[in-house]
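quick q for whoever's on today - can somebody do inverse folding on this one?? i tried earlier but teh output was garbage lol. C-alpha cells:
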C-alpha cells in the first residue's frame, strides 16, 4: 500500500529491516499531520489506538517507539502509569525538512540561473559520498556528470548544512550562472532527471484516487457527511503514499517542463483531496484523544 519513503528520512534512519522502517515512517507521518499541531505530545494509549486504525499491531508500534527513542527521534515522559511521547529537536527538524519538500509551492518564477554543485571526495570518504548523493537527490538536484549536480533552485542554505554535517565543505564547490551549452534547456533537464518515470508516478496516483475524490466531493456537495474514521484513514494513506513523489520531483519551473505536465494535476488532486478530508479526519483524532485520555 505504501510507496518508497522520503529519501532523507530513509537515509537518516538507516535500518535494513523494512517492517520497522515502515512503522517509523507511519509514526513520523502521524506526528506531522496531527500531533505537532496539538502540542507535540501524545499518550501511548492514544497513539496505539490511532495506529491500530491503520492496521499496525500494538507489538509493532511499541517495538518501534523504543527503537525511535534509542535513536533520539522521540523522547518519553511518564505521568503515573501513563507515558507520553514527543519528538526530540532532532526528530522535529527531520520532520520539518521532509514537510518542506513535500508541501513545497510550485516553482513559477525562475531567473534563468542554474546552481551547480561540484565535489570530489577521496575513496576513504565513500560513505559520505553515498550520503551526499542521497541528500542531493532529496533536495531535487539532478546529476549532470560524475561529481556535478545542478538545480534551478538556490538550495545554498540547505546544502551548507549538509556539507557541514558530513564534514566535506573543503571538497565541495558551488557556482551559479547561465547555461551556455549546445542543448536546449529542456534537453538539459532530460539528461539530469527522469521526467517520464516521475510522470508515471503522478499518473498512478491520479488513477488510484481521482474517482474516489470525485465521489467524496459529490457526497460533500449533496450535504452527506463523510465518515470521520474513513477520512482519517484515507487522508493518512493519501499523504503517506504521495510523499514519495515530490521527493523525486525537482519542482522545475514551467519553462523547463513538458507542456501539460501531469505533475500539476497530481499535486492539485493531492492538495484538494487532503483538504476535503481534513475537517473530518481532525474531528476523528480530536474525539479519540479526548475519549481515550478521559478514560
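ok took a stab at it. sequence:
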Amino acid at each position: 500500500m505504501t510507496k518508497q519513503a522520503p529519501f532523507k528520512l530513509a537515509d537518516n534512519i538507516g535500518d535494513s529491516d523494512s517492517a520497522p522502517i515502515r512503522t517509523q515512517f507511519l509514526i513520523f507521518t502521524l506526528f506531522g499531520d496531527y500531533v505537532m499541531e496539538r502540542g507535540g505530545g501524545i499518550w501511548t494509549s492514544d497513539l496505539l489506538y490511532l495506529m491500530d486504525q491503520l492496521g499496525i499491531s500494538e507489538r509493532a508500534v511499541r517495538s518501534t517507539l523504543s527503537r525511535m527513542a534509542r535513536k533520539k527521534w522521540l523522547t518519553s515522559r511518564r505521568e503515573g502509569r501513563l507515558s507520553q511521547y514527543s519528538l526530540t529537536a532532532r526528530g522535529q527538524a527531520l520532520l520539518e525538512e521532509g514537510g518542506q519538500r513535500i508541501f513545497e509551492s510550485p516553482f513559477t518564477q525562475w531567473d534563468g540561473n542554474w546552481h551547480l554543485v561540484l565535489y570530489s571526495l577521496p575513496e576513504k570518504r565513500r560513505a559520505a559520498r553515498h550520503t551526499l548523493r542521497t541528500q542531493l537527490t532529496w533536495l531535487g538536484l539532478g546529476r549532470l556528470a560524475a561529481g556535478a549536480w545542478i538545480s534551478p533552485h538556490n538550495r545554498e542554505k540547505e546544502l551548507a548544512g549538509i556539507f557541514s554535517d558530513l564534514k566535506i565543505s573543503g571538497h565541495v564547490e558551488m557556482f551559479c550562472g547561465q547555461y551556455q551549452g549546445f542543448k536546449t534547456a529542456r534537453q538539459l533537464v532530460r539528461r539530469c532527471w527522469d521526467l517520464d518515470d516521475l510522470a508515471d508516478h503522478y499518473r498512478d496516483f491520479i488513477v488510484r484516487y481521482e474517482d474516489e475524490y470525485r465521489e467524496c466531493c459529490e457526497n460533500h456537495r449533496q450535504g452527506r457527511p463523510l465518515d470521520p474514521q474513513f477520512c482519517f484513514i484515507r487522508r493518512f494513506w493519501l499523504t503517506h503514499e504521495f510523499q514519495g513523489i515530490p521527493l523525486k520531483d525537482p519542482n522545475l519551473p514551467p519553462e523547463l517542463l513538458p507542456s501539460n505536465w501531469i505533475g500539476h494535476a497530481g499535486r492539485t488532486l493531492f492538495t484538494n483531496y487532503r483538504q476535503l478530508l481534513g475537517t473530518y479526519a481532525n474531528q476523528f483524532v480530536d474525539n479519540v484523544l479526548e475519549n481515550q485520555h478521559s478514560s
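fwiw Strands lie at 41-43, 74-79, 82-87, 114-119, 142-145, 148-151, 172-177. also Residues 113-177 form a domain with the Alpha-Beta Plaits fold (CATH 3.30.70.240). so keep that in mind when u check it
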